[in-house]
């Protein structure tokens, strides 16, 4: 049986179409529309690109978008003051602080000041704690997108050995928790892991989340493994040597067009869900 490509572009388009239909219904009934506020501190060119992409995505599905630009010299206190204003604004249902911030910013302190009900990017300690305990919460968008792809293609992770390569707070750790919550046996690897190749050779599911181009070699992949590449490196290269490994897999995500499109789709979905679940007590 040949490997099946997990088409994140196709699934993200489906999700965005569903969101667009819901916002059109809200508009037709003169109801409040979901709104996402993005905070951009400084002038990082890559961050500018990502923010513009998110703004266009919001506009394409009927979600209002507000961009708050802050100076490169902004301090943590000033940033927190601005987040506080957004927390209190009933017309804002999602808050996204674009990473990375300039070095003088205490990012964790800033992230954790976001009202968890508006944490549609799933970056607060509260959101991570709820996720770890299996409670309903907003989930970091890329891990959530990975799980949606698995569900869409009917891939059952229960009882499987999943190896996650990477341990960041917004990708490696939360995707490990999500897989664990679905009864996978999870190994999280990192830069200090010994005999990484041996561990990956035993994996039924491999998640590339380390941010190093083709770090996970094709010869490490066992036949029939599911490959989920969340890496995006210069030259449209992922963390897995997918050009060689795909043929050995049962399912795999391409780069680009796999996990990437799902990230923004989840952000949009969670912004709409925030409005529906937290800011419309009388229902939509």
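-> sequence recovered:
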């Amino acid at each position: 049986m040949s490997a099946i490509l997990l088409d994140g572009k196709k699934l993200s388009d489906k999700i965005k179409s569903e969101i667009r239909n819901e916002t059109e219904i809200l508009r037709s009934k003169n109801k409040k529309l979901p709104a996402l506020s993005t905070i951009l501190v400084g002038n990082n060119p890559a961050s500018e690109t990502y923010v513009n992409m998110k703004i266009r995505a919001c506009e394409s599905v009927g979600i209002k978008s507000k961009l708050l630009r802050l100076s490169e010299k902004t301090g943590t206190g000033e940033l927190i003051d601005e987040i506080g204003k957004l927390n209190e604004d009933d017309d804002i249902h999602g808050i996204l602080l674009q990473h990375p911030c300039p070095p003088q910013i205490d990012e964790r302190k800033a992230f954790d000041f976001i009202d968890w009900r508006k944490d549609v990017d799933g970056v607060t300690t509260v959101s991570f704690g709820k996720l770890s305990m299996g409670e309903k919460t907003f989930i970091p968008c890329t891990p959530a997108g990975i799980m949606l792809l698995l569900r869409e293609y009917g891939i059952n992770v229960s009882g499987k050995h999943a190896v996650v390569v990477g341990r960041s707070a917004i990708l490696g750790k939360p995707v490990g928790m999500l897989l664990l919550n679905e009864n996978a046996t999870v190994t999280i690897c990192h830069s200090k892991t010994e005999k990484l190749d041996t561990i990956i050779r035993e994996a039924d599911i491999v998640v590339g989340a380390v941010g190093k181009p083709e770090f996970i070699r094709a010869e490490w992949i066992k036949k029939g493994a599911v490959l989920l590449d969340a890496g995006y490196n210069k030259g449209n290269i992922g963390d897995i040597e997918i050009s060689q490994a795909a043929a050995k897999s049962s399912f795999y995500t391409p780069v680009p067009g796999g996990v990437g499109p799902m990230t923004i789709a989840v952000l949009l979905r969670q912004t709409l869900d925030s409005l529906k679940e937290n800011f419309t007590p009388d229902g939509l």
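The chain has two domains: 30-115, 141-261.
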